[in-house]
Specification:
single chain, 547 residues, alpha/beta, FAD/NAD(P)-binding domain, seven-stranded mixed β-sheet, six-stranded antiparallel β-sheet, 14 helices, 20 strands, globular, binds flavin-N7 protonated-adenine dinucleotide
Amino acid sequence: MTPPTAHDPCSRGLSRRAFIAGTGSLCGAVILAGSASAAQRKSSASTAPIADGAHVPVLVIGTGYGGSVAALRLAGAGVDVHMVEMGMAWDTPGPDGKVFANTTRPDLRSFWLRTRTKQPLSHFLGFPLDKDVPRYTGILDAEEFGGITVYQGRGVGGGSLVNGGMAVTPRRENFGAILPSVNADEMYGVHYPRANAGLGVRHVDQGWWEAADCYQYARVGRKHAERSGFPFVFVPNVYDWDYMAQEAAGAVPKSALVGEVLFGNNHGKKSLPKTYLAQAAATGKVSVSPLHKVTSVTPAAGGRYTVVIEQIDTSGDVTATKAVTADKVFFAAGSVGTSKLLTKLKATGALPRLNGEIGSGWGDNGNVMCGRANHMWDATGKLQASMPTAGIDNWQAGGAFAEVAPLPTGIETYASFYLSITKNPHRAAFTWNAAAGKVDLDWQTAWKQPSIDAARTIFDRINAKEGTIYRTDLFGTYKIWGDHLTYHPLGGAVLNKATDNYGRLHGHPNLYVIDGSLIPGNASVNPFVTITALAERNIEQIIATDL
Ligand code: FAE
């Protein structure tokens, strides 16, 4: 199969005017011929590759949660914004009629510039799952550092393209430990509600959930949690629940109900291109350069900045190098992307006045995965919706919040699967490795032990009560814990340390950080609602005082 390439006019950047015209002709015909949903057609971002030598008032690096909030709010304040995104636009179906590959059938669209997949669940029934794929600018990056693999979304929409949509506002009593310098009253009174509204966060209809085949796995999760005395909490999601009900009824093309998630959802999930980025595009003041990667930011005359950008093709090869100037630059490349850029720019003298906090305070949100083997009478269902709806909250007593996660294999596995977010005290630092010309992260795999211990406060007790055991076939032979990865990188340019209390970088005026790198390593729950709410808070202040 051949998904869109850089030579395909529909995946190449188009000017906003050309794009609008195009939807009525070439691109529109291709999209309409495919199975892209109405929501997808509506949401396509306005792409317009930036020209070498251009000047822009605001340049935003990255199109994930932080970047999308910044772009929308700045555009709303009348400012022209250009967003630079290293991944693809993901707005055009491949020959199979789908934009995104299925979770169970990875192809070249699935992984970022790898020749072999690197599945988070590396094994099933003891057999390895990874396979060779052509090298391509796919949607999920499994970025490997010495002691940890960090999974991240690549494309216009960042992590929102690949994540589980689980949209959790942390319990208020935990907020002081998450962002100690931020006023909780303002966050819970204004910014969390604003973020939840902007993201389209909704609870599943519990009556429907109780009877839905696709949530049998979650009901088994609830039964086991409650029988062991743990609070089981419903959490909202950004999936369109009405669409899922129609999927279950067989009325629309299936997405969550055929397990789509890790490599994108073709329907149903309200990822950023359908929410913040669609609104930003509608202002007419925001343009995006996909397949463009920022490599340098340096001071220029008149208080501006020179931003060096490499344009790449779908093989990852550089096809052009551009230098543009910007009055203000927002770093929104995600915790790893922003930290790597700033660490390099400080160490190489490009931004010499950044302070010594750059690169430090990085954590994995305490992520650790495990599966439990249930009895034959506790089937979890061969149909599993890929969007999680609930968690087990043992944060206060045991330092763990466990997402009751799907294992959408299409067959009955008798497995319960969990992604735990735990209180892990370890924090790592990014450093510039001059000899290798790259940025390293000093996280060590052994640092996951406190996370395993915290997760065991839940699952050892459930196993004892149910007479069940851990699965040992999901992460390698006889390996219980998925302790080699994180989905939730946080920190590296921590708020009120590397920046002031609103994300302004110290030492270089008009440079801002506005993504997950501001949060010092742990959010106590899945992080994107907190990243969005913090971005809403910071951009409001920046618009009020810096424009
Ligand atoms: P992010 O969304 O990562 O966006 C950064 C963007 O910058 C990306 O599009 C990059 O490609 C781009 N970029 C990076 N470097 C450059 C550069 N040099 N030049 C140009 N562009 C660049 O950042 N969180 C939840 O709350 N609930 C969930 O259910 C959930 N599930 C997840 C499942 C998976 C498989 C994964 C990987 C993550 C999940 N997350 C979940 C985490 C969540 O997606 C993540 O915290 C946010 O996406 C981070 O948002 P940022 O704005 O910091």
